Amino acid sequence: MAIESPSAGSGRAILDIGPDLLNPNGVVHGAVLFAMVDTAMGAATMSVLEDGQACASIEVHLRFLRAAAAGSLTADVSVIRAGRRIAQLEGRVTGADGELIATASGSFAVITGPTT
Fold first, then answer.
1. What is the gyration radius of the CA atoms in the chain, in angstroms?
2. Is residue 69 within 8 Å of residue 21, measured between CB atoms?
3. 0.85 cut: is pTM over it?
4. Per-residue pLDDT for 115 more than 90?
């Protein structure tokens, strides 16, 4: 999975679909889409934080709209509000053809100080 933050407040995860990512029905396993969205949300959140801050998922909702079985997937997410303690995000997963595969929303905790 390739992860990037194209601009402050955005995150992207890109993944080529291979046979090891398919469920027994021959389509991408839902956990793969979840991992893409969660990781892209983390990148987007980190892009708006100050030095010394970190983030952690509080909750992520994923709505599956259609199956994907080949090609590539892209998860694009945006921070819609970044507070001192919580960031709210929205995202979309699309296939190589640009068709919408899933939508997402999530909340991330903003952590200041040591995380250990």
1. 14
2. no
3. yes
4. no
